[in-house]
Structures are given as structure tokens and as C-alpha cells.
């Protein structure tokens, strides 16, 4: 059976399903703790380096944190087996995707108008490198759990983690390429992430599985 078929099935309250639900909640708690650190360090590094992509990446960590909180809420107490809770969580995940895009576009416009250019920062490089390595592991694990749980909220959170890793790669590339004059890579990464966030928000709201 393909993933898109599995995710449309209503979850059964089996012992295996409940273990998967606890695993999804635990991963979200771990992610939430790291995202608090990531956001603070990313914003500090981005502001010092005038990097719109790095600032946007730090803010996207807050959006991801909202996604993690939603999944923790979804799989706590009586909501664990509630179809209504899953529907609410899925739409909340969609809103968290949409929350990021307007800021990124506005900040890109401001920095371009002000003539700011990103400069390399050791703190930014260290934090983004760590996320580039760790976030794909978390994201893929959550997407697998989301398919097992038939939870689009969980797969959506996993997609946000993968977006975080992709943006970390783009930020690192932008900081390096800026040293050879390719300053436009940094804002281009921010705009690209904004476009992806809007698209993923619509997919989550409409109930698509976010398995691409």
C-alpha cells in the first residue's frame, strides 16, 4: 500500500498505534527544546551579520516550534484518539506555515532597500550546520510516524523540519557565496522558503499528506 493511501485511513487504537503516538509526541518535545536554542542563536547571528536568510531561518524555528507544540497538543490525553483533534491540528499546522512567508518577503524588501549584505558569522555557521545534520533525521522520522498514525499534522511538522534543513543549507551557501560577490543568494533563499511555506500551508489545509 502506498503512503498516500495509508494516510487517509482512520487510525486504529492498537498498542502499536499508541506507541507511535507517544513517539511522535516525544520527538516533538525534543524538537521544541532544540528550536528554542536554535531560534535565539540564529536571530542573534543573523542580526549581527545582516543576513535576511539567517534571520528568517531563526524566525522559522519559532514557526516550527509552534508546529511541535501543535503535535504535542494533538497526542496528549483524550485528544490522542480524536479525529476532531487531528483536523484542528492539521489546520493549525497550515497556519504556522503561512505565518512565516509575509515576514520573509517584507524583510528581504527592507534589506535590499537599505543595502544590507550578509557577512559570514561563526555562530551562524555552527548553528546552521548542526541543524543541517539533525533536522533531516527528525523530519524523516516524523513523516514516517505521520503515515503510520494517519496524522497529517505530524507529517506537516516533519516537512517543516526538512524545510529548516534546506534553509540551513541555503543560508550556509549564501554566506559563503557572498564572499565572492554573489550577495543575491541570501535573499533568494529567503524568498524561496517563503514560497515553499505558502505552498505547504495550502497542502496541509486541504489535507494533502505532505509526502513529496
UniProtKB/TrEMBL annotation:
It is found in: Cytoplasmic vesicle, Secretory vesicle, Synaptic vesicle membrane; Early endosome membrane. The keyword Membrane applies. Keywords: Cytoplasmic vesicle, Endosome, Membrane, Synapse, Transmembrane, Transmembrane helix, Zinc. The chain crosses the membrane at residues 27-48, 54-72, 92-110, 122-141, 162-185. SUPFAM superfamilies: Cation efflux protein transmembrane domain-like (SSF161111). Belongs to the TMEM163 family. This is Cation transporter. It comes from Nonomuraea cypriaca.
